[in-house]
Design brief:
binds flavin-adenine dinucleotide; globular; 248 residues; 4 helices; Elongation Factor Tu (Ef-tu), domain 3; 2 domains
């Protein structure tokens, strides 16, 4: 029970935002690393853009060729935003083929994109003793954003699976950040098994920890189940999201 003299700990707040649709203009396209396309957008519509959690997402609306007013949506993490400069940066992990991937590969200055959201944010207080962040290239924007936000000296480990070692990213952080990069070139179920094996070798530091996972659907599910069922991680202190789904 919390008494008046005790501070509440490990507060997790779920916020909902008014749904907003914004039309953005591409102002720069940069190949950050061989398989990561960074796209910067600008628009006066961004004057009130808000994103409080590192794993917020916007839905990008991609027109369906040949079908007027028809769109497919895909989810991307606001990597950076600046309401004064009215800019938003999204990082696209490039893969073989898909509407978002193809749009990002072809994007050029002056292109426009309709972006919805974020619709909600889950803000996890930075008062845990340690953090474990696990994911693949699609999770890199959220992981690097989180690492940059965390308080000075806190113990944070990330386990990140990439197809190419050249896609590793650095982050400027005051946290005590260690990263294990796992290079798997084959984009297969066995690669995701390797992610599970690496995560299984991780020794939890003392104290309370928060585990965040985002990866291919089966991998995210398996990692969550392992952490909760085998390692006893409290369900309230783990978030696991399916960021994409491998086609059977
Ligand atoms: C909350 C959230 C935040 C996300 N943030 C980001 C982000 O910031 N950056 C980012 O790059 N992605 C992010 N993703 C993942 C991204 O939305 C998916 O990868 C999406 O499926 C890509 O859409 P697409 O149109 O290119 O391919 P789709 O049409 O969805 O898929 C086409 C084919 O490609 C395969 N595929 C899809 N994604 C990948 C992949 N990454 N690697 C290999 N094969 C793939 C599918 O299995 C399918 O066979 C996020 C997802 C969620 C749910």
């Amino acid at each position: 029970m919390i008494t008046k003299t005790e501070k509440p700990t490990h507060h997790i707040e779920r916020l909902h935002w008014e749904k907003r649709s914004r039309t953005l203009r591409v102002t720069s396209v940069t190949r950050l690393t061989p398989n990561m396309q960074r796209i910067t957008f600008q628009s006066d519509d961004l004057h009130d853009f808000a994103s409080l959690a590192h794993d917020d997402h916007v839905k990008i609306m991609l027109p369906v060729a040949g079908e007027a007013d028809s769109f497919v949506t895909r989810e991307y993490t606001p990597r950076y935003f600046d309401t004064q400069a009215r800019t938003l940066v999204l990082d696209f992990a490039l893969h073989q083929h898909g509407p978002a991937n193809d749009w990002a590969r072809r994007a050029k200055t002056g292109d426009t994109l309709i972006v919805n959201g974020p619709g909600k944010s889950m803000v996890v207080a930075d008062d845990f003793d340690w953090y474990l962040l696990i994911g693949d290239a699609t999770a890199l924007p959220a992981i690097t954003r989180r690492v940059e936000q965390l308080r000075a000296g806190v113990h944070v480990t990330s386990i990140i699976m990439l197809a190419d070692a050249a896609d590793k990213q650095a982050s400027v952080t005051a946290a005590n950040w260690q990263t294990q990069w796992l290079i798997c070139e084959h984009d297969s179920v066995s690669d995701e098994q390797a992610l599970l094996v690496t995560a299984a070798a991780y020794q939890f530091p003392p104290g309370d920890g928060y585990i965040w996972i985002a990866a291919e659907r089966q991998a995210a599910r398996a990692l969550r189940a392992y952490m909760v069922e085998q390692r006893g991680q409290p369900e309230a202190w783990i978030k696991s999201s399916s960021y994409w789904t491998r086609e059977e």
